[in-house]
Amino acid sequence: MAPERCSQCGGELELRQEGSVQGLFCGNCDWYCVTSNLPSIELDHTEYEVRTAGGDVHNQAHIKAVAEVSGRNFLGARKLLQETEPLVYKGKAPEVARAEAVLAAAGLGVQIRPQES
Question: Which of 2, 9, 48, 68 is the most buried (most CB within 10 A)?
Fold first, then answer.
């Protein structure tokens, strides 16, 4: 496939991507064209529920993970773990991904609703 050429000088264009910005840049002159490139997780406006399973109210790692994700203190998190499938977080996809990682790292089962596709 032939490289793209600059419309100003005919030089070869280089594709660059950094964070949420991507664009074509001419290596010969100052021409460039940039646009946003947002990850699909940032564009997901679905409200998700994160529930945990298999939590042990005597396991400090489980309690601390639930406390971190739910925003509760240690005692509140332990009480929450006494529920069947407790709702520990509700929010958008980027935060849900972080919550899932924290809970899974502590050895807790995680259920996300609605199901991610």
Answer: 48
